[in-house]
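Researcher: Go.
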Amino acid sequence: MKTQVCIIGAGPAGLLLGHLLRAEGIDCVVLEQRTGDYVLSRIRAGVLERVTTGLMERLGLDGRMKQEGLLHDGFNLADGERLIRIDMAELTGQQVMVYGQTEITRDLMDACEGLSVRLARHPRRCAALQPRTDLRQP
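Model: Structure:
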């Protein structure tokens, strides 16, 4: 398997990077040791900052996120009897999106085929990768 870039791990960061590279015309493959079902079963955080939602918009992969996600201006901290409001919209001028990491991973996985991002499950090949040494530095 030949590629310009090999990304190890098909979590949201690896998949998003793969889509960003393909959008710039860079050939890449995302290698994942586990099955897609396993990756999607890992429940993680669910708050996305504006940078992430902006990247999803730029890639045109934000449809379900916009439809099902919830925009929030801030959050509350509870300390005994006190409730402390942290108004992120007021402090930063931006909202956050509540949308589960599992869902963003699903959206990125679903988009791989149509966008030529190669997602490969090769647990043993990860150890056999040979980096190219003949690349010129810009």
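Model: The first strand starts at residue 5 and ends at 8.
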